[in-house]
Design a protein that fits this description.
Blueprint (H helix, E strand, L loop, with lengths): L7 E5 L4 H12 L3 E6 L2 H11 L5 E6 L5 H15 L4 E4 L17 H11 L1 H17 L3 E6 L2 H4 L7 H24 L3 E6 L35 H8 L8 H13 L4 E2 L4 H15 L9
Parallel strand pairs: 1-2, 1-4, 2-3, 4-5, 5-6, 6-7
Helix pairs in contact: 1-9, 3-5, 4-7
């Protein structure tokens, strides 16, 4: 997809972070953009703020954990525009799980993480892909994963890592199945980076819906911002801003790439270590 001029793009989690930056840059390139998010107030603020950038922007509230809500989103988008060229299954949450053992995490934390990060992608694929194929229009489905879980799993975020591993797997299968369809619709998987991305995902637990509240006592989140994470863990790396991720992602989509994975010396070394360990049938090395 060489140009985004006039293309219809739907971005879940579009009112903040990487999602908002994607919306901004697509608008600036003349796309017709749907900002889809669970936060109705934030949708209004964002659509008003970014409308002058160009293109055409529409805001629609959606809860990606609910199949009916995502179906309703697709109904509204196809009724208005007739087709979709770009679907960004981007909505995601952090769980405030750092420093907890996998066996001590509340089941409702697992449910929430899986429902947003995994089922949100599944619901998006089910609601949009059949109609994208039927339209005959050029299209790309972009699922947001993470190098944490999506390529190698860090022990301090078991739920998040598990969900992003699922997103990578789902995306690879989707890619193969779309190739088999022989239609102009393809898949891509986005790994935001190359460094820790400066978003508000660490504070997700603070607005967790009541549906996912449990009997376990609520504990403070380990980190509220990405800067907190870097300071607390002592990680010696800079932050990547959301607009950098959006620029990289759109460039990769133009080039027809499936793996939207930025180059990183540290990241490549970790992937290489894991791959070599698999080939050698070796036990995983400690990541602490």
């Amino acid at each position: 997809m060489r140009s985004f001029e006039g293309k219809v793009a739907v971005v879940t989690g579009g009112a903040s972070g990487v999602g908002r930056s994607l919306c901004e840059q697509l608008l600036a390139e003349g796309a017709r953009v749907v900002v889809a998010d669970i936060d109705a107030a934030k949708i209004g603020e964002v659509t008003e703020a970014i409308a002058p950038l160009g293109g055409e922007v529409t805001g629609i509230q959606v809860d990606v954990t609910k199949e009916a809500s995502v179906d309703a989103l697709a109904d509204q988008v196809f009724a208005r525009f007739g087709h979709v060229n770009l679907l960004f299954n981007n909505a995601g949450v952090g769980l405030g799980e750092a420093k907890k053992t996998i066996w001590s995490l509340p089941v409702n934390d697992w449910r929430w993480g899986i429902d947003v990060n995994v089922m949100g992608v599944v619901h998006g694929i089910k609601a949009f892909v059949p109609r994208m194929l039927e339209s005959g229009e050029e299209g790309v489905v972009i699922n947001t994963s993470s190098t944490n879980g999506g390529l190698r799993s860090l022990p301090n975020t078991p739920i998040y890592a598990a969900t992003k591993a699922s997103v990578t797997s789902i995306s690879e299968v989707l890619h193969q199945q779309l190739l088999r369809e022989g239609k102009p619709v393809s898949a891509a998987v986005l790994f935001p980076g190359p460094h820790t991305v400066n978003t508000g995902i660490m504070a997700s637990r603070l607005v967790r819906p009541a549906d996912y509240a449990g009997d376990e006592p609520e504990e403070p989140v380990a980190y509220r911002t990405m800067e907190d994470l870097l300071k607390t863990t002592g990680l010696k790396m800079k932050l990547t801003e959301p607009e950098e991720v959006a620029t990289f992602a759109l460039a990769g989509i133009r080039s027809g790439k499936f793996w939207l994975l930025p180059e990183s010396e540290e990241g490549d070394a970790m992937i290489r270590l894991r791959t070599e360990g698999l080939l050698a049938r070796d036990n995983p090395k400690s990541a602490w």
